Amino acid sequence: xxxxxxxxxxxxxFYKKQLLEDTVPFWFPRSLDTEYGGYLxxxxxxxxxxxxxxxxxxxxxxxxxxxxxxNSVEQxxxxxxxxxxGIAFLEKxxxxxxxxxxxxxxxxxxxxRKRRYFFSETxxxxxxxxxxxxxxxxxxxxxxRHLFGKCIEYATTPGLLPPKFTxxxxxxxxxxxxxxxxxxxxxxxxxxxxxxxxWIGKWIAEIEKDFVKDDIRCVMEQVAPDGSIIDHVDGRTxxxxxxxxxxWFILYEAMHRNNDPHLINLGCRxxxxxxxxxxxKEQGGILYFRDVYNKPVQEYWQDMKFWWPHNxxxxxxxxxxxxxxxxxxxxWHRQVHDYAYAHFHDKQHGEWFGYLHRDGTIAQxxxxxxxxxxxHLPRQEWICWQLLDQHLTKLNVQ
Length: 398
Fold this sequence. Notes:
This protein folds into 2 domains: about 1-30 and about 175-398, Glycosyltransferase (Alpha/alpha barrel), CATH 1.50.10.10; about 35-165, Glycosyltransferase. It has 13 helices and 14 strands. The protein has helices spanning about 5-25, 55-70, 75-95, 120-135, 140-155, 175-190, 195-210, 235, 240-255, 260-280, 305-325, 325-345, 375-395, and strands at about 40-45, 50, 55, 105, 110-115, 170-175, 210-215, 220, 220-225, 235-240, 290, 305, 355, 360-365.
C-alpha cells in the first residue's frame, strides 16, 4: 500500500487531534503538584492518583514535553509555567551531593533510589534545553550543557558510576549510545552545543559497528566489549521496539544531514531486521523480547505488548516511508498504527494503557507509574504530526 495525499492529511490531523485533545489533557493540568512542584503521574485509567512518589526521569520528560509544545505548537503560558515547575523541582530535589541525579523520590523530594545508569540526567538535559529555548534563560542553558558534559563522562569513563553488581562477563548495551545520540540531537535543535555533531557521529558508528549484525539480520541489545555476541540468555535477548527506536534516531539524523544515504540505509536496515523479529504475525503488535537464535527467553513478560515500543515503531515506519517512498513502510506503519490505537487507546478516559497480554487484552489499568508517563505517546504524536506537516508543506498542501 501507499498513502495518497488525502491519507497523509488525515494522518496529520489525527495525530494533532490525539495529542492536543486526548493525550495532553489526560495529564494536564491534573498532574501538576501545586504544593511541592513537579508532577504527580502515578495514575489509574480514569486519572485517579494511585501513588504520590515521583520518577525523576519522567519529571524531566514531562518538563521537556511542555516546553517543546510551547516552542513548536503554541506559546501557552500554562505550558511554560508547568514546565518551569518541573525544572525547579529537578534542580531543588533531584541531585545528590555527588552531582548524580536520583531515580525515584518522594512527593516532597526526599530521595528513595539512585540507579547505576544516568538516564535521569539525559532527560534533565533535554528538559532544561527546551526550557532555556522557550525562556532565553542563560543559566538554565548552561545547566543543560553542563549536564550533557556529565553524561558524556558517565558514558565514556569506566567505573565513574558504581556498577549494579560485579560480573566476570563484561557487556555493553545499545541503550547508552542511543540515549546519548538523541539527547545530543535535542540539545542541538534547541540551544545548540558544539560537541553534538562529533559525538552523534561517534555513537552512530558504535551502533553500526558493534550492535548491527547484517549477517543474521539483527540488532543486538547487548554485546561483549568487542562487539561479539554473548551466547548466553542475557546476551541473546533482543528488544525489537528499543532497536527500532534507535533506527528512527538514525533516520532523524539522516534527515538533519540532508537525507544522508548511508544513514538512511542503516536506519532502514535496523527497522527491517527488528520488524521481522518483533512483529507478532499471529496476534499483531510488537513482542517485547525475542532471542537472537529463537531460543526461549528468560523474562516471563517476553510475549507481552508494552505501549512504548509501539510508539517507537509508529515513528520509525512513518519516517522511513516519508524518506524512501518504499510502500513496505506504509504498510507496516498502517499495521502498527491500527493495532496500537485499537488496543492501547482508552476511548473512555483518553491516553493509552501501558501493558497488554499477547492477545491484546489489558493486563492492568494504570496509565502512569515509575516507567510510564507523558512522554513516549505524546512524543510520537507530536513528531508524526510535525513530520507529516513538513512533508505536506513541501507538496504545497495545507
